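Lab meeting, item 3. Inverse folding demo.
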């Protein structure tokens, strides 16, 4: 069965393998999911990702769910992903509220929000989904969780586009944060091998590398 989102991701060149990763980012990893440069000029693909995230959130939350659902993206990469998910919910029976997180707190002199990294509103009773592009070690998620906790905001779940299956989800689950993904890296590679886009040996080597580079 054709996966239209994965096909779009492949056409946009967002799956980097081998030398492509080294040339673009100087990293040794044999696979890199690049939801950065090329994605931002492809508004149609960004919309596809937003719709997929919107659907996944409501699959997880359950429908109907009486609690309002809110999305926050981890800056900078996932900020447009969260906004796209919220925009995808417009006119549907499953709306998503939106807020942002800064990399650094605001520099206003004081007041209730003067030193906050949170941008938006939040109320008790909302279920917050923290969105990111990729799950590896989970460190960026822990940072975001700590920043939001400073404003009393509890995150119900974490949703990423791709889980590299390196143990970050287990680290976060152990701290009480369930994690979900649109895809695992194994599912992506299996799909691209099956559609003759990636050599099976290349896929096997990438998976072996990720298994050997686990975070604990």
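The presenter then showed the designed sequence:
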């Amino acid at each position: 069965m054709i996966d239209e989102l994965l096909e779009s991701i492949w056409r946009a060149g967002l799956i980097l393998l081998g030398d492509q990763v080294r040339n673009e980012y100087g990293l040794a990893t044999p696979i890199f999911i690049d939801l950065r440069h090329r994605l931002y000029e492809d508004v149609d693909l960004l919309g596809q990702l937003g719709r997929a995230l919107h659907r996944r959130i409501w699959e997880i939350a359950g429908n109907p769910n009486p609690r309002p659902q809110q999305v926050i993206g981890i800056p900078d990469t996932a900020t447009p992903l969260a906004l796209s998910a919220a925009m995808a919910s417009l006119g549907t029976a499953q709306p998503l509220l939106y807020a942002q997180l800064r990399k650094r707190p605001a520099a206003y002199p004081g007041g209730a929000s003067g030193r906050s990294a949170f941008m938006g509103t939040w109320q008790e009773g909302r279920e917050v989904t923290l969105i990111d592009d990729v799950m590896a070690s989970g460190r960026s998620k822990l940072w975001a969780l700590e920043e939001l906790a400073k404003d009393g905001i509890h995150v119900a779940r974490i949703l990423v586009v791709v889980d590299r299956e390196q143990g970050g989800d287990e680290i976060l689950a152990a701290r009480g944060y369930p994690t979900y993904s649109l895809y695992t890296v194994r599912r992506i590679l299996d799909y691209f091998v099956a559609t003759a886009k990636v050599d099976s040996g290349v896929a096997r080597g990438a998976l072996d590398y990720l298994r050997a580079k686990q975070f604990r």
